[in-house]
Amino acid sequence: MPRSISVSRPVLLAVLGAGLASCTSTAPEQASGSASLERTASPGATESRPLTLAEQVQTRPLFGDLHMHTAFSFDAFTFKTTATPDDAYSFAQGNPLAHPAGGVYELNRPLDFLAVTDHAEFMGVTRAFADPANPLSQLPIAAEVTNPDPKIASAGFQRLAGALRDGTMESLLGPRKNASAVVEDAWTRVKAAANRHYQPGKFTTLIGYEFTASSEGRNLHRNVIYRTADAPLPFSTVQSRDPADLWRFLEGVRQRGYPVLSIPHNSNASDGVMFGRADYTGKPIDAAYAALRLRNEPIVEVTQVKGTSETHPTLSPNDEFANYEILPTYIASPKRVTKFAGGYVRDALGEGLAMQDGEGFNPYRFGLIGSTDSHTAIAPVDEDNYSGKVGVLDGTAKARLDCTYCTGSDYRNFAAAGLAVVWAPQNTREAVWDALARKETYATTGPRMQVRFFGGWDYGAVQPGRGNWIEQAYARGVPMGGTLMSRRSGRPVFLVSALKDPEGANLDRVQIVKVWTKGGRHFEKVFDVALSGGRKVDPRTGKAPPVGNTINRKTMTFANTIGAPSLQARWSDPEFDPATLAAYYVRVLEIPTPRWSSYDAHRLGREPLTDWAFSIQERAFTSPIWYDAQKPVRY
Questions:
Q1: DSSP 46-99
Q2: Which intervals of the chain are annotated as region Disordered (predicted)?
Q3: Fewer CB atoms inside 10 A, N or C side of the chain?
């Protein structure tokens, strides 16, 4: 997690742009079939190599970030980020890095893996504007974007973003070959940096980029992640803004021997279109579209700096923990999000089950990860040492709390999050990517909790945390990301184990969230399956008493005198219906700790913000386990 070594006064810059700011080589290997899903892969499917039982037992949690931007991203460069992909990989391994707003940050625990995912659009171009030796620096738009006057620079950047949206890029950049040469060079540098820093068994780098699509400002961004040490030029919104065209491109890439997958992010800012019933063109989703999406997008980024996309209070009114780090607006815009259905993953899981039940296809069978979406090459995941997201614009406590440069997003709505976690037998590109493809993954909002989740029919007396339970759990069932097919009798059993971050807060509770469908509608229910401190669920209300709060407001510290260092549960759904499709995932909550904005206020000698939470309960979300009820999805 980032630790500030020194603090200095930042350079100041107004917000530049809104619409698109968000966000040793080896031979390619072709992925093979999946072990955790009972199905036959379609041609071109995103598949992982199946693990043997011995490998499954050896899996361990690897913590990383699959969403990091550097100066090669056109927006990050305008935020005065000068860090390169090399700098990002170096920082992730525990080395110090200067922040564009001043100060130097360093992780106190290195990450296990990282993918630099600079925007495919204009990759390296704004950086080239500042290079006198590059012909692009002589363009009028370059003079505008790099002008020290924030108003002129902002206008130039808005023109650049508008040209991307309108397809008039050549009117600003001249012949396409000039910009194309810069993009090709930047992509070569991105790949080379990843390969330079790859240390199999110790630190994994993955080659990737961001496809920065939107529909009238509604977020449809994706990160594209490769399994190999080489990759073709990125597919960007210059070619098409339709995500389905991206998936078709990836299908062809895999046929050429480059295993690759796509990860949607910030569905919370999509205003209901990320997980809707229609495609980008407005056409109702059909089986062919669902299969295409399912083959290419096995996982979703559920939490990051721009908020958490698990669920929304209006979608889950009975979930007392639904109102967690909600981003209320479009990305880089004050426009309010008004459509929540289709924008959050829990609702999408239910909508997918409803489609599967009625029409036989399900485009939304995805696992979950977290990541940061940092635009400084620094992972801002610590509440007590938050470094911001957008360079000089939110890189100091004062700038954040005063919202000094909030001409688009209100940076006080941003969160210190998140991390991607995979269960893999070793720390290599192949093992990390394969875990993503088989969905044996989970997300955290920053802490490094260790969470196991299994489901099966034949667990007998197996209890989590006892004996060789992990071997039995794998041998007799499926892990997170897997599917349970129906049986003639009995109910499935779920095993959960959660361990606190060794350097973080104790655990409050473990919950299993159930989503199911019936009569064309989908439903949800949250079950408290393990509670710290001997608490019990009140049978009248269905709620457990709060865990308490140990935060000392004067010192901005907390004590692990409540909660538990670990929680385990063996649980069977008391309302299980063998004829009903369902999905189950685990949510783990820590005890309350201060939010980053409270830490910032304390440092400045101010009272905490009153319109934002003083404390939060950091959490983890696992990939689901599906129950298919004799109605398996068609691929």
A1: ---PPPPHHHHHT-EEEEEEEEE--TTSHHHHHTT----HHHHHHHHTT--EE-
A2: 25-52
A3: C
Q: Does any domain span residue 224? A: yes
Q: Which residues is 478 bridged to in the sheet?
A: 455
What lies within 8 Å, CB to CB, of 127 at 6+ separation is 71, 72, 77, 186
* Residue 622 forms part of a structural domain: yes
Radius of gyration, CA atoms only, the chain = 23
Rounded to whole angstroms, the Cα distance separating 265 from 67 reads 9
The enclosing H or E element of 214 equals: strand 214-215
For the stretch 345-381, pLDDT in tens is: 999 999 999 999 999 999 999 999 999 999 999 999 9
Collapse the DSSP code of 478 into the 3-class scheme (helix H, G, I; strand E, B; otherwise coil) and give the result: strand
Three-point CA angle 12, 18, 23, nearest 5°: 85
- Tokens read off for 232: 């073709």
Q: Is the pLDDT of residue 177 over 90?
A: no
* pLDDT of res. 356: 95
Tell me, rounded to whole angstroms, the distance of Cα 31 from its chain centroid. Answer: 23
Q: Domain span at residue 69?
A: 2-627
Distance CA 10, CA 182 (A): 29
The three-state DSSP-derived secondary structure of 558-617 is CCCCCCECEEEEEECCCCCCCCCCEEEEEEEEECCEECHHHHHHHHHCCCCCCCCCCEEC
Cα distance between residue 541 and residue 173, in whole Å: 62
Q: How would residue 79 be classed by pLDDT, with cut points 50, 70 and 90?
A: confident
Structure confidence by residue, pLDDT tens digits, 127-140: 999 999 999 999 98
Structure tokens that stand for 60 in this block: 């361990």
Residue of higher predicted confidence among 174 and 206: 206
Least Cα distance to 124 among 74, 84, 177, 160 occurs for: 74
pTM over 0.85: yes
Contacts with 358 (C-beta within 8 Å, 6 or more apart), sequence order: 520
Amino acid 156: pLDDT: 73
Contact 440, 59 (CB under 8 A): yes
Q: Do the domain assignments include residue 633?
A: no
DSSP 349-398: HHHHHHHHHHHS--S---EEEE---BSSSS----GGG---SSGGGS-SHH
Domain contains 280: yes
Domains held by the chain: number = 1
